Amino acid sequence: MINIVLPVDFSDATDRLIDGAVKFAKETKGKICLIHVAPADIGFAIGDMGFQYFPEVEQNEIKDELLRLNVIEQRIIAQDVDCEHLLKQGVAGDIILEYAKSKNADYIVMGSHGRSGIYDVFVGSLTKELTRRSTIPVLVIPMH
After folding, report:
1. What is the average pLDDT across 52-56?
2. Is the pLDDT of residue 29 over 50?
3. How far apart are CA 101 and CA 103, in angstroms?
4. The dihedral sign for the CA sequence 62, 68, 72, 74
5. Where is the UspA domain (predicted)?
6. Mind listing the pLDDT tens digit for each residue in 89-114?
7. Is the dihedral of CA 123, 128, 132, 134 positive or negative?
């Protein structure tokens, strides 16, 4: 079975990205390995007292993101595509590449913004980074 790593960020383009990845998974009889990378600094705030950490903010945000991943996973499974998910905190590019290697991924599916002709804006900085660094093929799906 082909393993397809699908990073999601819950942006407006996420639904279109999922639709494209599901179509690709059906065509290749693949399994989608869904991943969301949360920032490592979710519970931190800057105020008069300097940096402060609020663990309850971080916990609530992580719970919300896990619920959203579960919904996406169920949506994919309902379309007869195998799926699993993972949420990690840290540097997105590094974690996605580590996850793809751990899953023996055949593809990483990313989206492009298509907002202008400038490469960084068109493709997106994370997509650009992964296409440069990854030894695994990166399928870029236009989001426009």
Report:
1. 62
2. yes
3. 5
4. positive
5. 3-142
6. 889 999 999 999 999 999 999 988 65
7. negative
pLDDT tens profile 10-20: 988 899 999 99
Longest dimension (CA), the chain: 55
CATH number at residue 118: 3.40.50.620
Q: Which domain holds residue 48?
A: 2-142
Number of structural domains found in the chain: 1
CB neighbourhood size of 54 (10 A): 12
Give the pLDDT confidence of 37-51 residue by residue, as tens digits.
987 766 556 666 666
Per cent of the chain over pLDDT 90 is 61
Phi and psi (nearest 5°) for 141?
A: -105, 125
Among 119, 114, 118, 132, which Cα is nearest to 17's? 114
CA distance 79 to 3: 16
Residues near 60 by Cβ (< 8 Å), separated by ≥ 6? none
Enumerate residues 6+ apart whose C-beta is below 8 A from 111: 13, 16, 17, 20, 124, 127, 140, 141, 142, 143
